[in-house]
Design a protein that fits this description.
about 500 residues, mainly beta, Porin, 18-stranded antiparallel β-barrel, 3 helices, 23 strands, about 5% helix
Amino acid sequence: MATQAMFLVRRSAALALLGWSAACGAAGQLDPDGQGGMEREVARRAAVEPPVGADWHMTRSVEAGAQIAGENNLFWKLSNTPARNPAFDFQPYWYEFYVKPALGFKRNLGDGRQLYARVSAVGSGTVRHDPFGAGDTGRISIEEFVAGIRMPLGDAGTRLDLSAGAQNFTLGTGMLVANGGSNGFDRGALKLGPRKAFQNSVVAKVSHEAFSAQAFYLDPNENPDNDSGTRLVGVDASYTLADDRKAGIAYGKVPRSRAAYPQAAPGGIGAPLAVPDGRKDLQFVYGYARVPLLPGTLPKGWFGFDAAREWNTREPMRAWGWRTEGGFSLPDVAWTPKFTLGYQSFSGDDPRTARNERFDPLFFEGTPGAWASGSKATWVFVNSNVNALQATIELHPTPKDTVIAYLAQVRANQMGSPLQFGQATRLDVPGDAPVVISGVLRPMLANDVFVKYVRVVNPNTYLTLGASASFAQSGINQLVKGQARTWTGWLANVVWIY
């Protein structure tokens, strides 16, 4: 049953950050499958296995990062609209850091069987206060603590991989399931986002050549002060020949969750409603594909499509989300440019119906170049009731230098419907009398620009500099009865990998 509720800024922000992870943060350019240069280096080092016993091999690694970041005209200064708070800092700057040591173990048992395990921990913190008012805090916690076994099934090349514990897990391209660890608030390191693993999981995967199928159980590592108790189970089948030649389909269900859902008031007039335990029993079907695009014409051209449908049999709920994108690179041209263009859209609740059409992004990969809707707007608007036209331009002046520009136009899908838990609720006068309106009355929200420079100082050290700006459009400007301020930001970080 829906009841009226007011949502704390801190809690609604936590949901946005769940998918944010390392947005605007850690170094490394993104490939079509989302893997960055730094991640590839970590994987390469993990493949080197110095012996530690007769049959055991061990890998050792340490990753660390430090960052300074700042904002100006934070959130377009929207908080001045309902009631000015002189204590609110619209120009914060703060420091972040983290360290992540890890050990990996493997042992061959013969007959193609292999035991493996991995354990890692994260120590992170923030000095001064970040945009959500959290700071001078930090935590140490287990990141990965997983063990498994790989073994052949029969003599036809089929293999079984069973694993359990705290581990990373991504479903498809990360539209719904990728970021299992939340950052920021008491844990610190809001932008660097070092935590990503689910705190508990069971995964059973069967693979044969390019085909694979898996069943999974996931328990996300949410911030303790905002733990929704969500659990996720599902199955996935995929066919992968290469990064640009793959397709898959997945089904998932949330058997347990305390997360509430926002819902538009009837007709969009009135404060947004809350559906207690709205996420519980959520079900989804998710499909994805990547194929080469005009291979004889476009060098390294590719095209991708993702789509998800969500529903709930316990509550009247139907929602959808999708993305289409394509890209190509010019390896024989100076600076080896790479271009990507995409459009993504996620349904919002229709205030004209009793059903809830709000899309739930769950644990999406919310970095620019992955599934973020904009670079700064994604701090305010998660992937629900928004659509975004986005372009990426990537240049390599030298083998060690990368410049990436992210451009985005972000719009609302439903007028008078909650955007990120209805923080746009306000008094308006659409007729003869003032009423409470939720959401926006015009679709255009913001145009975002984010430029990032990455320098590979040496194989162990990555330097990143970034600058961003968000230009408010008519939907935001109407909230302030004028032109909202341009929201800008900057960052500088260094990441070490050993």
